[in-house]
Amino acid sequence: MEVLAQLALMVDKRLLETGTLSTRDLRWKGLSWFGEDENDDYIAPEVLRLNEAEMEHFRTDANRIYDIFIEAAQHVAQHQLWDEAGIPANAIQLVQHSLKHELGNHLIGRFDYAGGLGSAPLKLLEFNGDTFSLLPESTQIQRMLFDKLGRKERKRSGQFNLVSQGLIKGFQQLLDRYPNRPASLLLSSLGHEEDELNLDIIEEAAKHSGFTTVVKAPLEDVIFSPDEGVFIEQSNGQYLQFDFWFKMAPWEFIAYEEPELMETLTNIVLNDLCIIINPAYSMLFQSKGLLPFLQKVAPGHSSLLKASKEPAAPPSSAYAAKPLFGRTGDNVQLFQGGRYPIAENDGDFSNFPKVYQELASFDKDEDGDIYQASVFWAGDGARGFCLRRQDSLIIDDDAEFVGHILQENDWTN
What we know:
The chain is α+β, with helices and mostly antiparallel strands. The protein has one domain (12-407). Helix content is 32%, strand content 24%. It contains twelve helices and 20 strands. The chain is globular, with a radius of gyration of 21 Å.
């Protein structure tokens, strides 16, 4: 989500031209939003090449880091360090219950990394473990970019693009874990078009996994009863109950902005009326407050950056100050040995406390764009990969999406 202690060597030799995706192609896939208006230059006309050993490094690290996040979350629960980890008081009961009774229900999240592209060391920035973005880009748009390569390039190339398969397996695991529950799933968001496009991927996987009823409805149309569960009202005036609810609404938004709903959802889960996905313990994954605990449970792990919640004792002279529950680079500040930031973004999260994380090295191209890699964890492990790039020191909503391909590494010489 942010960039740089020291920008690493150029990645230009890794880039392979594909050309731009046409508006017609995007519209045919239902993805025109990613190529229209302010997004018209969002999708880069190149893909970036990696070799299998590099991708294996991303995969294995993401799988190990996922285990470390669980260990850190359990450490917080065991020692009741909720405030230090950033969990508000009205969410503690549900998060604690979720860790104890719902471990394994987590469906999907996205790790963001610096480095790993041949010159800068691989370093974890954060885990979007509750809600996320980049799902349509990673599953569909990357495939479209791959298909634009010449036949010879396609024949000698591959892609790490198995997120949909991971989602299907994750949903199947949930159904197996709760065999006595009806296979009814409700999908909801706050109504943003990008969230709805991400939900489309979730919906398709759920239908392939064995759910017999899959319905999308805006959060504002969902009925939550602490005594009966989760419902929507149908056009015929009847009410349809759901035993599973996937929400594209952050747990921290519910806890801070909708406290009555937080209380109701706590009762629904504690009364075993509905399974909520992602489960409440994913709020810990999303919180930057968990970052300082990662090294406590896995000291010396190579991809972990030092982090602290103490403003008087940042982890190094070069560090990022991040809001506890910030997103898309909002309210991030970068410091490099001085009192004043070398880069900063405005945003909507200035009311949250900050977490201070040492800066990492990012790979860059000759135009000065820096590259941030992401790995999707879905179902049972790392399942997909993508990149973003930007010509500033903080990756935010102005970043370009960059696809990838896997090839033998003769191009690196």
